[in-house]
Design a protein that fits this description.
Helices cover about 50% and strands about 10% of the residues. The chain has six helices and six strands. Strands 1-2 form a two-stranded antiparallel sheet. The chain has a two-stranded antiparallel sheet with strand order 3-4. Mean pLDDT is about 80; it is low at about 1-10. InterPro entries: Myb/SANT-like_dom.
């Protein structure tokens, strides 16, 4: 294949379990998430929970394999397990931040704009109790 060929086009071999895998040791460029990939990924994790593939706060290896296969079969997208784990961990962190704001009576959630508002004093008190990074303050929280 020429250097300009798409990585995904070169993929498609199977491992010993019949799962589709990317060729060779190189797994391609950095994985970029989009809303469709995220929806497929989180739907797969929810299905894995319902199938009993979660122990405590961690997923069994089969759950990660199922999520990988869902991304491949629905989007021809190849993510490494580390990409999936990082996405899950970051979503959990954002959800805890969002839930903390929703549970604080000084904050008001507007479902139409999907934003949480409060007075400057309420924000200051909240941040003093629950310090967050600058990135957490400016990144959108894509929860309903």
């Amino acid at each position: 294949m020429s250097g300009g060929d798409d990585f995904a086009a070169a993929a498609g071999s199977s491992d010993a379990n019949g799962l589709r895998v990317a060729p060779g040791k190189h797994r391609g460029p950095r994985f970029s998430w989009n809303p469709a990939f995220e929806a497929t990924f989180f739907r797969s994790l929810c299905e894995s929970v319902n199938a009993g593939l979660r122990e405590g706060s961690t997923f069994k290896p089969e759950a990660w394999d199922r999520a990988t296969q869902a991304l491949i079969s629905h989007h021809n997208a190849y993510a490494q397990k580390s990409h999936l784990i990082n996405k899950s961990d970051n979503a959990r962190k954002k959800f805890r931040l969002w839930r903390g704001l929703r549970e604080d009576l000084e904050f008001i959630y507007d479902p139409q704009s999907k934003t949480v508002t409060a007075s400057d004093e309420a924000w200051k008190r909240h941040i003093e109790v629950r310090p967050v990074s600058t990135a957490d303050c400016i990144l959108p929280l894509p929860f309903p």
